[in-house]
UniProtKB/TrEMBL annotation, chain A:
This is Actin-binding transcription modulator. It comes from Ceratopteris richardii (Triangle waterfern). It comes from the Eukaryota. GO terms for cellular component: nucleus.
TrEMBL record, chain B:
Coiled coil: none annotated. It comes from Ceratopteris richardii. This is tRNA pseudouridine(55) synthase. The keyword Iron does not apply. Its EC number is 5.4.99.25.
Length: 196, 540
């Protein structure tokens, strides 16, 4: 079969159709590569934090993509994860409607629910306590991270990436209003230096 | 051919012919009403031949003289005439033909050769349609070796045609040539007759061949101030505002819908109902049709594949708040060279998918097409080769083209199909948070037709629908980059529409599985190139 043949061919060595010159430019020399790579989460987002949001120890991050969308999650110093115990459960069934039912659709997401900064996104359950995670900014709720329901320990291991809580779409005016009180990453690190 | 035509005209029944001439129907329309087809209409002596034959025929049929006289009386002053053995045929050419409103009297043959009949009309018509056509073609400097003619006739001419037909049927319906005949089947349409009258002589004057499939169109738009919209034919009561009123000369162009509506209505309306709306035979009208000639060429399509060697050139012009992003675009770089060759009005650029601005397009390139609107210049395959060479010899050299060629409209659909079905190959420089063993690399490369679930990436989620799309990664290949611990070259082949950057870094786990999850580490992407687009299009 012709297709299988070309598939095998492609597996051995450089892809077909590439001139010698092109193939060379695909392969960077070690000296051109940085010691540390640019991180997608760091380079695509501006990172902001809030400390003690409505309650002591309720520290959250707001990562703002340059397209205006905001990823909301737990800061490393959040009381739920700033210890050795594991998160037991994440429950999006808060407020009048479960946050997992608030689906947005279409290019304009005109059916998305608009939540207030203090609106609850979910409840994080630990051994002997529960914590409400909030929006921090007014905006349309585009999605919540349902993987947390099955795998709540993502909050302990990867809170800043795969353990994000939700994605919000604030209007520029609402963003400006809310972000005035946010800390930058540098300010946050000064206030909450990483634990040893 | 002339003798056949002569025979055909001679065989016409003289009574109805002489009647039609006397009420002001032109010789061309008369032949149409008798269903005579083909090249007859281009014969320059047609009008005088018709009048002569009719005169001779009438003189041979003295028994009909009485009837014939009665036709002539009413129009005495305006009439010219011919006499043979004291029999005369009257013809009124002081006004435009009551059927075609002068459409055929604009034609060259008549005006040149038949001074007797058409003298006055010729004086009034500044330019004949043929001269107008040639002028229009020359003015725009079109190059062509074939052409086709598109004709539009005002609705009022259709109404008048019907009125003449109704008159003919009522007065002469017993004639064997007319008995039991239907207008739509029997009468040669003005479009067909016009083509018969024009095309041969146009072919000679334009030194080109008529071909209905030609891309070069000569549009003849006959217009008349009398519109059918207000006449009140059932189903044709279109409001005037739906047409286009030209403020400068008061021309009224009927919308196409009203022409279709009037045609449908005329086909079904009874003789009685018709008579209550429009008189028959139709009244004389001092104003002749007006002719607009315009030329255009249907889209010239050229296809090829482009390569892009820059990480700062987008596919199409990319402006954010009137500020240009990057160093130009593939579209502009190619079009700046290609477009001027065609002396055209505008162009559209289509490609089969697109790569991000920071992604190079290598390998065999990406299929693209340019749709060139109303090209004046006809380019040969040789010219196309030269155009390709000049794109490829641009000093900057960031964009190259391959297999540039003239293509047919079917290429457009193959390009669209390919957009969803094709497989694409990529090469990425990636970073992994740990050093991977050879066994792990082999396991990774053993993955075939891996299905992943991809949520709309955060970077485009603000303007695209939130969806989860299943996508196929057909194969993967991982090479170590010598001299580094964490850097690798990832080659992969995926289904169209896969977001590769997100497949590598995982996009907050929203693309799953991803390179990091498969190799149980973190993964980042530093640069990406498209190395092949598997499509059987513009490959040679
Ligand atoms: Zn006529």
């Amino acid at each position: 079969m012709g297709e299988t043949d070309s598939l095998n061919e492609k597996e051995n060595g450089a892809p077909p159709h590439l001139s010698e010159l092109q193939a060379n430019t695909l392969y960077p020399s070690a000296s051109d590569l940085p010691p540390e790579p640019p991180r997608a989460v760091l380079s695509n987002y501006d990172r902001f934090f809030v400390i003690d949001f409505m309650k002591g120890g309720h520290d959250q991050y707001i990562y703002r993509h340059n397209n205006g969308l905001c990823v909301i999650g737990l800061a490393p110093s959040h009381i739920a994860v700033d210890n050795d115990a594991s998160v037991i459960a994440v429950d999006f069934n808060v407020g009048k409607r479960s946050r997992t039912e608030m689906k947005a659709s279409g290019k304009r997401k005109s059916d998305a629910c608009v939540l207030e900064p203090t609106s609850a996104l979910c409840k994080v359950v630990c051994n002997n306590a529960e914590y409400i995670i909030r929006c921090c900014v007014r905006g349309a709720l585009l999605e919540v991270n349902e993987r947390l329901v099955k795998d709540p320990t993502l909050l302990n291991t990867k809170a800043a990436s795969e353990g994000y809580i939700a994605i919000m779409m604030p209007r520029p005016a609402d963003w400006n209003k809310a972000s005035a009180s946010f800390l930058t990453a540098a300010e946050y690190l000064k206030r909450k230096p990483p634990r040893q | 051919m002339e003798s056949t035509m002569y025979g055909a005209i001679q065989a016409l029944p003289s009574e109805p012919v002489s009647d039609l001439l006397s009420i002001g129907v032109c010789p061309f329309c008369i032949l149409r009403f008798f269903g005579i087809r083909d090249v007859v209409y281009s014969y320059p002596f047609l009008p005088s031949t018709l009048v002569e034959c009719t005169t001779i025929n009438l003189s041979k049929e003295p028994c009909n003289k009485k009837e014939q006289e009665s036709f002539g009386h009413s129009n005495e002053q305006a009439l010219d005439g011919r006499t043979c053995n004291n029999v005369s045929v009257n013809f009124d050419m002081s006004n435009p033909c009551i059927a075609c409103l002068g459409i055929f009297q604009l034609e060259p043959g008549i005006d040149r050769q038949l001074d007797r009949i058409c003298h006055e009309r010729r004086e009034r018509m500044a330019v004949t349609s043929k001269e107008k056509i040639i002028e229009s073609v020359k003015k725009e400097g079109y190059q062509f070796d074939t052409f086709t003619v598109e004709i539009s006739i005002p609705g009022i001419v259709m109404v008048r045609e019907r009125a003449v037909w109704q008159h003919l049927q009522e007065k002469h319906g017993s004639q064997s040539r007319l008995q039991g005949k239907h207008l739509s089947e029997h009468v040669v349409s003005s479009k067909e007759a016009l083509k018969g009258a024009l095309i041969k002589s146009l072919e000679e004057s334009l030194q080109a061949v008529h071909d209905s499939g030609s891309t070069f169109k000569i549009a003849l738009r006959y217009k008349h101030p009398e519109t059918v919209c207000e006449l009140g034919f059932p189903g044709c009561s279109l409001k005037r505002k739906r047409g286009v009123m030209n403020e400068v000369n008061g021309d009224f162009t009927e919308p196409v819908e009203s022409l279709v509506a009037i045609q449908r209505c005329l086909a079904s309306i009874s003789a009685k109902d018709f008579a209550s709306i429009y008189p028959y035979p139709p009244p004389k009208c001092a104003v002749a049709c007006n002719l607009d000639v315009s030329c255009y060429r249907t889209a010239t399509l050229i296809g090829g594949r482009y390569l892009k060697f820059s990480r700062n050139i987008s596919q199409s012009p990319w402006m954010i708040e009137e500020e240009r992003k990057g160093d130009g675009s593939v579209q502009e770089i190619i079009a700046d060279v290609v477009f001027p060759h065609f002396k055209a009005d505008s162009y559209k650029f289509h490609a089969s998918g697109r790569e991000d601005i920071d992604v190079r397009m290598l390998g065999g390139g990406r299929p693209f097409m340019m749709e060139i609107v109303n090209a004046r210049v006809l380019v040969s395959p040789d010219d196309i080769q030269k155009i390709e060479d000049s794109v490829n010899s641009l000093k900057e050299g960031w964009v190259k083209v391959r297999n540039l060629q003239l293509v047919g409209a079917d290429a457009r659909s193959s390009m669209l199909e390919g957009e969803t079905e094709k497989q694409k190959q990529y090469t990425a420089v990636i970073w992994l948070s740990r050093c991977i063993s050879n066994d792990e690399i082999n396991d990774f490369m053993a993955l075939k037709d891996l299905q992943i679930q991809q949520k709309t990436p955060v970077r485009v989620l603000h303007r695209r629908s939130p969806l989860v799309r299943p996508r196929m990664i057909h194969w993967l290949k991982l090479d170590r980059i010598e001299g580094t611990e964490h850097y690798y070259l990832l080659h992969l082949c995926s289904q169209a529409g896969t977001y590769i950057k997100e497949f590598v870094h995982g996009d907050l786990g929203r693309t799953y599985p991803n390179v990091g999850s498969l190799l149980k580490c973190e993964a980042e992407i530093l640069q990406l190139d498209v190395t092949d687009i598997a499509m059987d299009l513009f490959n040679e």
